[in-house]
Amino acid sequence: MSDGHRRAQAAIQTILRLTNLLMAGKRVAVIGDEPELAARLRAMGAQTLLADPAAALRGHRVLAEDEAVALADLVIGATEAHLPLLRDGAILIPAVPPAGPPEAGEPPEAGEPYGTDGEPSGTGEPYGADGEPPAGPSGTGGEPSGTGGVLAGLPGVRVRDGITGYRLGPGREVFVLDMSC
């Protein structure tokens, strides 16, 4: 099995585990070169939206990247440039994948969510003692949210483990999946 197939399967398993979404009928924008992921999502019944004209030959709907992001229920590979285009309630998977556990004995680099034992760092508690979301760029006590910096400046509220909600404006909220969970 190739690395592309492994990455696609791991991404889909994480998305399904975190969201419990039924992919059939969902509009999914896949930004970047992820043909295996797009093919698997299409096989699950999702309407895949890609910017690559050659994708039409493989059964995907081809749109300009901005149009695809604006229509999508789920956006895979989003960047900061896509934020103004996202629709209310969209689920976002950032373009920069979170780093995996470091090799044994290596300290994690700044911003990595793993300790030296390969286990996730932090307490995992979504709220502080006062019942309010902890301070920090992701609303999770300053721990990395796995967003790859896409929403680094916005306060977010952890909806549940692996999902953080961000309010982009009046009546516009998006949810970001932490693919390291």
TrEMBL record:
Signal peptide: none annotated. Residues 97-153 are annotated as: Disordered. It comes from the Bacteria. Residues 3-179 form the S-adenosyl-L-homocysteine hydrolase NAD binding domain. Gene3D superfamilies: NAD(P)-binding Rossmann-like Domain. SMART domains: AdoHcyase_NAD (SM00997). InterPro entries: Ado_hCys_hydrolase_NAD-bd (IPR015878), NAD(P)-bd_dom_sf (IPR036291). Residues 138-151 have a biased composition (Gly residues). This is S-adenosyl-L-homocysteine hydrolase NAD binding domain-containing protein. It comes from Streptosporangium minutum.
